[in-house]
Each structure stands twice: as structure tokens, then as C-alpha cells.
């Protein structure tokens, strides 16, 4: 089944940069072990919701992309499953899992579909939920175009049979302990539908606009070949330097992630060409640093060392488990609910160091107790006068 070019998952890109659709066409979809792990976690979550089972029942199973259901996956997926079941119970809604939804009426792309992890039909409220298994940056539901397109598609699919007034959109990231919910009226969703239609129409135009943005370029396959991104990055170096005025530095810092993404794409493209035998002037492939030594067979090594009558402390590196590992044992009921508070009392966590963030960040700004006026001028040494 062909993947939709104007897919909900890539809407943050093509809605901002319509020209990226044509530029990315024909490029392979590169997966990663992290993406495959996320796919397997989704498969497990769907299995639990569809069969009314818990994730622990599948521990040790190898899922479709080859990842084993381990303790971490069990705990994370169960957290999401419990959340979904709680919403269904609270709303007395009808649960639909891995719901395939037509989106051609929204994007204009013929026969295009998207798949929502969860759709819940709850009377006047329509709910769409998305599981994010990654442990990177927390993703907000607020203004999320992927979720909004799923919401619109679900409205189109079920709106005739149900009298919805609002759409609740949810992003659940269990490995970050984050749940983000955002609610819009049906009218607000219809206003967004007009934005999608306009962006989609631009995306299929010849010579569609290329508009580099940090979010849009992050997962774009055409970064290394994008003339607009190249111009955006290189033009910055004509005006920006470390001693530039603060407003100029602010402009540069706002584009730092964009620059880093472009450089990463350039490195990847050079490596791809060299591996394919295409010369790149000034660069060559060399053997990388060798990996860490490891046992060809841990079982054979263990048996051999035991034959040598090594002591336990000589054979094994024993370290105390981390607080995170202890918490997993508590969630798995290995550490009992009465025991966990005693463990918790022994855990400390240092405050995070101050870091730079945009003003739109939801965290409150630090109030610094010291200012420049609080410090003495020590640039000129003073002498005591008798």
C-alpha cells in the first residue's frame, strides 16, 4: 500500500513547506531501530486494547519489527493502555483501535488514508489519541497538525451518525510521563480544514514554495538537497558572529537546530555517496574506531571462568541498581507499596542547571537573585590608605 504523500504524520512539514513534497518524492523511507521499536510498542498496545489483556501477558514475545517485549515496554505500554481504558470508562465511549481513516476529502490526495491509534466516540465528544513511544522531546497536542487531521478524518467518518460538538486530541508519551490534551470545537476544526486544503493545494503546484523551518525540516528527507535551506543557513554567516548584538544572536539561536539538522544531512549524504563509490573531493572512507570488546558467548565465558575457580566478586561486576530501576521494580510489584516510600526517602535528585529556552517554553523563567549591580568593580585594584 503506497504511503500518502500528504500524510498526517508529515503535515508539520508539508503544511509549512509545500515544496518539500516534490523535493522528497522518490526518496527512500529510512527507518531506524528507534522507529521500529516504536512500531512494535504500538503493535503491543493495539493487541492489549483489542483483546482486553495487559502488556505483561506478552513479556518475552518478539513483535513484528523484531523487538522483544521487555519490562520497560511492558510498563510504558500498560501506562498508555490504562489511560485509554480510563477515558473510555469515564466517558462511556465506544473504543476504536488502529482506525484507518480516509483523508482524501481533507488533503485532496486520491485514495489517501491515515491511521489513528485510538478513536473514542463519546456522545457529544470525539476523542483521538496518539501513542508516542520515544523518550526524546515531549510533544504537545496543542496545535498539532497530525492530530487535527486525524480528528477531521474521524469527524468525516462518524459525524453523520454522531452529534459531536467538540474534539479532544491526546498525545501520550509514557516513557516521558507526559500526557497532553487539547480540545477544539467542531467549528474550529472546520476552520483548520480550510488551512489544510489550502496548504495541500499549494503542495501539488509546480515549483511550490520551499520554506525551511526547524520543525518542518527535522524529518525532511530532502534536507541535503534543499536550495532554500542552504541559502537560509549560509546567509546567516554573513551577519552573525559571537560579538553581534543580542537581537542578532537571538535570531541565530532560533535557527541553531535548523543549521545543525542541515549539517547532519550533509554529512549523511556524503557518507551515502562514498559508500556507493561516488567520489566527493577532499573526503574518503576510513575504518572507524573498533567497538568495545565483548564475549563471543557469555555462557561459554562464564563456564570457563568457573572452571578456573574464580570468586564471585572476581567474575562479576556488581553495582547497586539505579533509582529508575528500583521504580520499575515497584511498578512491577517486586517492591511492595509499603516498601516503596522507604526507598523513595533515600532518593535525591539535583536541580537542573540553568539552560537557554525560547520564551514560548512552558517552563517559568528563572528569577536570578544576583544582577550586575550586585557585584563590585574589581577591574582596578584598590590600595588601603593610611
Describe it for me?
By secondary structure, the chain is of the alpha+beta class. Among the domains are: 196 residues, Alpha-Beta Complex (Lambda Exonuclease, Chain A); 62 residues. It has 15 helices and five strands. A five-stranded mixed sheet has the order 1-2-3-4-5. Helix 3 packs across helix 4. The C terminus is likely disordered.
What's the helix and strand layout?
Blueprint: H1 11-14, H2 19-24, H3 33-51, H4 71-91, E1 94-102, H5 104-107, E2 113-122, E3 125-131, H6 145-158, E4 166-173, E5 178-185, H7 186-203, H8 214-218, H9 227-236, H10 246-254, H11 256-275, H12 298-307, H13 312-315, H14 323-331, H15 340-344
Parallel strand pairs: 3-4
Antiparallel strand pairs: 1-2, 2-3, 4-5
Compose a concise summary of this entry.
This protein has helices at 11-14, 19-24, 33-51, 71-91, 104-107, 145-158, 186-203, 214-218, 227-236, 246-254, 256-275, 298-307, 312-315, 323-331, 340-344; strands at 94-102, 113-122, 125-131, 166-173, 178-185. The protein is α+β, with helices and mostly antiparallel strands and 386 residues long.
Keyword list:
alpha+beta; Lambda Exonuclease, Chain A; 386 residues; 41% helix
> Looking across the biggest beta sheet, what order are the strands in?
1-2-3-4-5
Count of helical regions: 15
Distance between the first and last residues' Cα: 91 Å
> Strand count, sense and closure of the main sheet?
5 strands, mixed
Amino acid at each position: 500500500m503506497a504511503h500518502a504523500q500528504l500524510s498526517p504524520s508529515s503535515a508539520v512539514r508539508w503544511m509549512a513547506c509545500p515544496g518539500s513534497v516534490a523535493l522528497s518524492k522518490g526518496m527512500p523511507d529510512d527507518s531506524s531501530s528507534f522507529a521500529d521499536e516504536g512500531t512494535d510498542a504500538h503493535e503491543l498496545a493495539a493487541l492489549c486494547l483489542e483483546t482486553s489483556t495487559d502488556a505483561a501477558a506478552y513479556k518475552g514475545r518478539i513483535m513484528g519489527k523484531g523487538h522483544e517485549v521487555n519490562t520497560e515496554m511492558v510498563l510504558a505500554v500498560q501506562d498508555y493502555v490504562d489511560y485509554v481504558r480510563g477515558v473510555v470508562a469515564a466517558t462511556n465511549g465506544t473504543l476504536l483501535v488502529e482506525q484507518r481513516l480516509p483523508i482524501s476529502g481533507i488533503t485532496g490526495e486520491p485514495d489517501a488514508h491515515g491511521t489513528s491509534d485510538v478513536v473514542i466516540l463519546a456522545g457529544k465528544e470525539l476523542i483521538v489519541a496518539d501513542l508516542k513511544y520515544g523518550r526524546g522531546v515531549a510533544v504537545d497536542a496543542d496545535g498539532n497538525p497530525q492530530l487535527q487531521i486525524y480528528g477531521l478524518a474521524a469527524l468525516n467518518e462518524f459525524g453523520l451518525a454522531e452529534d459531536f460538538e467538540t474534539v479532544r486530541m491526546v498525545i501520550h508519551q509514557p516513557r516521558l510521563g507526559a500526557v497532553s490534551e487539547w480540545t477544539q470545537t467542531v467549528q474550529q476544526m472546520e476552520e483548520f480544514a480550510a488551512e489544510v486544503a489550502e496548504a495541500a493545494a499549494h503542495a501539488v503546484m509546480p515549483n511550490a514554495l520551499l520554506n525551511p523551518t526547524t520543525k518542518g525540516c527535522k524529518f525532511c528527507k530532502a534536507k541535503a538537497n534543499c536550495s532554500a535551506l542552504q541559502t537560509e543557513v549560509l546567509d546567516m554567516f554573513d551577519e552573525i558572529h559571537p560579538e553581534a548584538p543580542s537581537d542578532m544572536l537571538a535570531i541565530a539561536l532560533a535557527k541553531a537546530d535548523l543549521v545543525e539538522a542541515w549539517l547532519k544531512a550533509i554529512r549523511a549524504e556524503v557518507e551515502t555517496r562514498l559508500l556507493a563509490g561516488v567520489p566527493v573531493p577532499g573526503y574518503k572512507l576510513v575504518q572507524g574506531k573498533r567497538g568495545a570488546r565483548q564475549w563471543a558467548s557469555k555462557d561459554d565465558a562464564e563456564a570457563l571462568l568457573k572452571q578456573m575457580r574464580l570468586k564471585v566478586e572476581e567474575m562479576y561486576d556488581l553495582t547497586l541498581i539505579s533509582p529508575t530501576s528500583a521504580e520499575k521494580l515497584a511498578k512491577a510489584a517486586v517492591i511492595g507499596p509499603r516498601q516503596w516510600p522507604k526507598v523513595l526517602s533515600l532518593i535525591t535528585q539535583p536541580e537542573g542547571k540553568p539552560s537557554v529556552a525560547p520564551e514560548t517554553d512552558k517552563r517559568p523563567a528563572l528569577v536570578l537573585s544576583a544582577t550586575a549591580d550586585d557585584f563590585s568593580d574589581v577591574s582596578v585594584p584598590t590600595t588601603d590608605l593610611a
